[in-house]
């Protein structure tokens, strides 16, 4: 009982300290750059946590710690890509129950698109675009990207976030998501480096305590990326269709108005988009039976995704578009949009 009370007192103290920072403070005391006045960037000189020195031909050398981390991390990623731990997506017996349970969980603490605080829609879009640069730079998973965005949106729904501390909150959310999803997340100091050392490690750790207390340590909820992955596996998407679907759910993160849709509906719309683009049945009857999602449930989300796909090349924030224009992503962002 004494331990529990001490933990509550500790969290309360952290919450009071950070809340004063988020809701208002003396600008001279902090002097941090506003998210509204600059686009977040990853410093070119930032060290990668898996960088290592090349082997010398002079004498044999055992792998360094960073080499070992890099090799082990690559093995873990390759294992996931080989599908060795994705059995639940292909398990016919349990697929329907897993999806229905996740569809119930997705609306728990679902963020609102109508939040009222100092952070406006453009600032949020800038942060998401910056997130994607970091995710690509550090080779993080798509689910890490989506979970970080979900954490930010949930906090914007319940807190009056000061715009001058928005990047700190965002970097900390990305760190929490990486800890939760990655086998080998970047070290904490890397999240200070990506802000160009604007925020120290201690500030990030203090913000992490505050965020987890605000969320009652309930971090992970099903995202559009998770539903899209499960739908694609169920419909046996080929690689190009899978990349198209991944591109569509990533694009949805840039527009705050997509928060009015359920993540499962965004994923279904993205899957439907990929099916139509490649001449498949838009939304098979089997998917309706397995998921309980009908086309009427996601038709509005599909229209909005179609609009995002068409306007992405002319958008000011092109990190996601540029990635899916690359050969590694099979240039899916450059294909003609399907007609309905």
From TrEMBL:
Keywords tagged on the record? Cell cycle, Cell division, Cyclin
Positions the record marks as coiled coil are none
Q: Which GO terms describe its biological process?
A: cell division
Q: Which residues form the Cyclin-like domain?
A: 129-213, 225-307
Against InterPro entries, the record matches this protein to: Cyclin, Cyclin-like_dom, Cyclin-like_sf, Cyclin_C-dom, Cyclin_N
Q: Which Pfam families match?
A: Cyclin_C, Cyclin_N
Instruction: Please name the PANTHER family in this protein's record.
Output: CYCLINS
> What is the designated name of this protein?
Cyclin N-terminal domain-containing protein
In the record, what lineage is assigned to the organism producing the protein? Answer: Eukaryota, Metazoa, Ecdysozoa, Nematoda, Chromadorea
């Amino acid at each position: 009982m004494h331990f529990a009370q001490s933990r509550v007192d500790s969290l309360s103290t952290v919450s009071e300290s950070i809340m004063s920072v988020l809701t208002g403070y003396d600008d001279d005391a902090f002097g941090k750059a506003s998210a509204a006045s600059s686009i977040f960037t990853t410093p070119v000189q930032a060290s990668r946590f898996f960088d290592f020195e090349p082997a010398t031909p002079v004498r044999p050398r055992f792998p360094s710690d960073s080499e070992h981390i890099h090799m082990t991390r690559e093995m873990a990623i390759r294992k996931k890509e080989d599908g060795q731990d994705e059995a639940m997506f292909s398990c016919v017996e349990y697929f329907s129950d897993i999806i229905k349970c996740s569809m119930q969980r997705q609306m728990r603490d679902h963020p609102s698109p109508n939040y009222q605080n100092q952070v406006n829609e453009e600032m949020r879009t800038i942060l998401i675009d910056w997130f994607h640069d970091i995710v690509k730079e550090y080779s993080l998973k798509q689910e890490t990207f989506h979970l970080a965005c979900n954490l930010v949106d949930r906090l914007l729904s319940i807190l009056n976030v000061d715009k001058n501390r928005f990047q700190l909150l965002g970097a900390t959310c990305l760190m929490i998501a990486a800890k939760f999803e990655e086998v080998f997340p970047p070290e904490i100091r890397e999240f200070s480096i990506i802000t160009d050392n604007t925020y120290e490690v201690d500030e990030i750790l203090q913000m992490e305590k505050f965020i987890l207390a605000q969320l009652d340590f309930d971090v992970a909820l099903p995202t559009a990326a998770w539903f899209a992955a499960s739908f694609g596996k169920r419909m046996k998407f080929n690689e190009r269709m899978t990349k198209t679907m991944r591109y569509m759910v990533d694009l949805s993160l840039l527009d705050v108005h997509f928060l009015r849709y359920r993540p499962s509906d965004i994923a279904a719309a993205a899957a439907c988009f990929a099916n139509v683009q490649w001449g498949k049945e838009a939304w098979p009857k089997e998917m309706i039976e397995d998921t309980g999602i009908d086309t009427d449930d996601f038709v509005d989300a599909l229209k909005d995704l179609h609009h995002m796909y068409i306007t992405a090349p002319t958008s000011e924030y092109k990190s996601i578009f540029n990635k899916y224009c690359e050969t590694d992503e099979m240039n899916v962002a450059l294909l003609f949009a399907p007609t309905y």
